[in-house]
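new request in #modeling-help
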Amino acid sequence: MNFLDDYWLRPDPTDPRLSVAVTGRNEAGETIETRVTVERPLTLFLNAREIVTMMTIGDYPEYLALGYLLNQNMLTPQTPVTGIEYDDDLGVVVVRTATETNFEEKLKKKIMTSGCAQGTIFGDLMDIIENARLPPTPVRTSSLYALSHKINQTPSLYLESGAIHGCILAEADRPLVYLEDVGRHNAVDKIAGYMQKHGVDPANKIFYTTGRLTSEMVIKTVRMGIPVLVSRSGFTAWGVELARKAGLTLIGRARGKRFVVLAGDDRLIYDQDLAYVAEESAKHRRKGSKHEDAGA
Amino acid sequence: MNFLDDYWLRPDPTDPRLSVAVTGRNEAGETIETRVTVERPLTLFLNAREIVTMMTIGDYPEYLALGYLLNQNMLTPQTPVTGIEYDDDLGVVVVRTATETNFEEKLKKKIMTSGCAQGTIFGDLMDIIENARLPPTPVRTSSLYALSHKINQTPSLYLESGAIHGCILAEADRPLVYLEDVGRHNAVDKIAGYMQKHGVDPANKIFYTTGRLTSEMVIKTVRMGIPVLVSRSGFTAWGVELARKAGLTLIGRARGKRFVVLAGDDRLIYDQDLAYVAEESAKHRRKGSKHEDAGA
């Protein structure tokens, strides 16, 4: 498991704040103890303006706050952020900019909930699709299989307690940043916040999500400047349409040996001997099958 | 497949409006044609007030509109609804009441998106948990297994094109109303709208969802007055807590032979010979595995 050392950031399923033990019964009527994922409210302020209350596992409120504002187009990557303050007791995070932004009025307070995650201001965001300039970074299918294998073997809350989404920022076959949350949009936004904070170059990256390939997921990936989006899950028609318009490579239903690419297949280099993958696939499936679709 | 005749309403995966054929490539680089789920915007008005724009597959806008308003506590089951008008071209649905309701001001316009579905006004909704009076309807484990088997064998968009959630209203081992949508909350809300419209008694029903057992899902089930909530997916800690408070039976990770009950286990009657289920389980799994977690 040396690949675990390649991660810049990965889940800590042993963090006692992220899941709790509960007692119940199984199918045989036996008393069992199991772990379930925690969700807690986090209220985000941009300067003095209350923006939104989100349900989150609460592990990286600063990344979530920054990434949310970026992905909602309420901050641009160029906006100077002078500070991010988090109050654990209050469940409040405040993002401060040098001057008031003109985005603060754009969103009224919305109560957000897990599974629901975040609404999106589509008007603004469609510009992101229209103006997309994604680099022609090639993607080897051998890298995709190796990447999936590593992700499936990475200890995570998903494997520990289920009912959670995961997003992974990767480069070729190396997963680099793996973040989870109860809503899949929170997980994406935390990645965006991480990339902004640490100045990560998106051009040679791959974005992997456990969630479905909807219009929102496509828009966020394009906004982050990442040219390739991969998921175990399926597509929506609008997601496919936007990916094609933006020149994003969109790969879905990626399980074991199988995958389908519905946009941007010009980036793919088919260098994997599929006979070999078939054998590994069963192994992956067992590894990941404890809560097979709990987080999808 | 005689059980299909027991349905009051079930998916029509042959409806050409609900999915589109797209061309792509598979893992071997071969050109393939596959179907993907359609999502389209639907703007909901309560009388003259614009409430929300949702992304939906668009099959039952009237049920979705009515159920949304009920589940958001913007209408009570007692509010007289004088009409529901749907304009397909505009993508607008209007719910009319005899007099203006005091709920119309409660929600500001929110742009909702698939995967995101709906925010919730928690303040109001917590009263629903506090005041819950769910009936002690017994549930036989043999019924649960028979029910899952029938659901897995019912033709659906999930089996056809994936990336969709399903909710099923059932009585004992009989699925009665099976509705799907791109957001799981839309699917729940359509069930709520159906129940209201047709005066369905919730007391002896079971609610089955492909989605996770979060606080919102628990609140909606309790509001509908249904005493049992079942899912293939996992739990969140708050979902479990609210279910226990409300006296809701909460069953999750229900796959093949396995399940876990984390609240309200007093309703369960363990009458199923598990040795028999084990054999059926593999069969179910194959049936449902085309897009195993695409909609979860």
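bot summary: The domain at 133-291 of chain B is CATH 3.40.140.10 (Cytidine Deaminase; domain 2).
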